[in-house]
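Please check the following.

. . .
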Amino acid sequence: MSAFFGLFGNDKNAKAVGIDIGSSAVKVVEIGLKGDYYSLLTYGSLALGPYAGKEIGRAVVLPQEKLVEAITDLLQETKVSSKVAGFTIPLRSSFLRVIEIPPVEEKYLKTVIPIEARKYVPVPIDEVSLGWTVLPPQYNSGDPGKMDVILAAIHNDILNSYTQIASRLNLESKILEIEAFSAMRGMGEAYSVPTLICDIGALSTKIYVVFDGLTWLAHSIGKGSQDITLNLSKVMGLTIEEAELLKRGEGVNSNNADVKSIISLLMQNVFVEIKRVTALFESRRGKKIERIVLSGAGALMPGIEGLWSEEFKLPVDKSEPFKQIDTLEVLKKALQEAGPEFAGAMGVAMGALGAH
């Protein structure tokens, strides 16, 4: 497996920081490992919009020096002390899907998979790093003449960019991992039933179908919580700052029917795409989605679970990444409320300490 799938040892008395760079904010979680127990050392989130002269909550693309400046500010504010780090790689900068290959012995996979990957990866194979997991025979899609493999690819330029960021931050990058894997680990569940994880970011909504510890589907939808803010601002004549506060403070629970309508309409666009993609998965795999877990900053919006539950007629929960580690009792309620935003940072921090 390649580095972004890899595990790099397990120091039983160690600490590491997970860094999740999103489109509108960067999140960090620093944890310690003593024996088999994790403890929370510090965590925090910082909006990236102001570093580009934009409002809080806006998605921006920062040059590397500005991104390093923002992460440095956050590490200082949260008093992170670890020099060991893990970074999430955005789904938009990677490739992840289940593919079929001819059945071969394990020793031949390193030769066969790059050849087969050329059919799916949209750039030259020598420009990417590949990782894969061969699925057990009982999970195959039905063709006895094929093996199913979860294939992941990240462009080498992306990996080099994150390595440079780590170097400029004076951090040792132990793991660079596609955010789907970090999020699943950070949520701390095995997901024995097919579960739809929905990461509602500012720029997009990422969906993953997971069960039995595997990520079966990853898909990005080009609508996110920033679109809600912009629509609220436009329709209701609010500034971006006012609209962002309204979204975060009242959300779907607003007494204003127009606010609820604007949010619901935007979410309907997301729901239509989710239903299209998951229907293909269910048809191919013969398995039904049984629950939904919301993550990302958009999942913090009041009333969001009810909106999704009403639409899909399934149990809907928010992710609770801090639930699986030792924290002070006085912090548990605040951590539960903030949790959905930190699943990726938590998961990649655990990965940097050797967690599967």
Observations:
- The longest helix spans residues 257-285.
- The two ends are 13 Å apart (CA to CA).
- The domain at 94-154 is CATH 3.30.1490.300 (Dna Ligase; domain 1).
